Amino acid sequence: MNDKLNIAVLTVSDTRGLDTDTSGQFLCDALTAEGHRLADRAIVIDDRYLLRARVSAWIADPEIEVILLTGGTGFTARDSTPDAIMPLLDVEVPGFGELFRHLSYLEIGTSTVQSRAIAGIANNTLIFCVPGSTGACRTAWDGILKTQLDISNRPCNFAELIKKGSH
After folding, report:
1. Complete DSSP assignment for 3-52
2. Is 60 helix (H, G, I), strand (E, B) or coil?
3. Average pLDDT, integer, range 132-138
4. How far apart are CA 71 and CA 76, in angstroms?
5. Main-chain dihedrals φ then ψ at residue 103, nearest 5 degrees
6. Pathway it acts in (predicted)?
7. Residue 129 bridge partners (DSSP)
8. What proportion of the chain, given as a percentage, has pLDDT over 70?
9. How many CB atoms lie within 10 A of CB 31?
10. Which residues pair with 12 in a beta bridge?
């Protein structure tokens, strides 16, 4: 069994392009540094239907095992990532958002309550939604994702769960 994952990265932004997307680029660099494969990368404006369309296509693609979304998790009128993604999930991972906000609190204090970071599984595909700042992506990657996407992490990890298809 190949222990590395095929991961797609989606940046949710009305203003960023590939040349200015430092958050998405951080995630791409971090996942490839761990030996995972960048399966696809895209930027989509913050529109719940366009988000659902892109993420649904990736969920349906048997080659994509993990989807990392950055951006659109706040409370402004344009922040629709959690609202777009939640209906697509077969099961939610509530501990992800809780742990992310805990780690974030240690870095930015009470401002973390303005994050609606979420995670779940759909069609044996892991989906993680984190805020759009590069710092938030670093917090999520270093504090949670790096080890949970490592099949050797014990006592448990999401990589093994997805590889075995036994969620």
Report:
1. -S-EEEEEEE-SS--TTT-HHHHHHHHHHHHTT-EEEEEEEE-S-HHHHH
2. helix
3. 96
4. 12
5. -60, -40
6. Cofactor biosynthesis; molybdopterin biosynthesis
7. 69, 118
8. 98
9. 25
10. 44
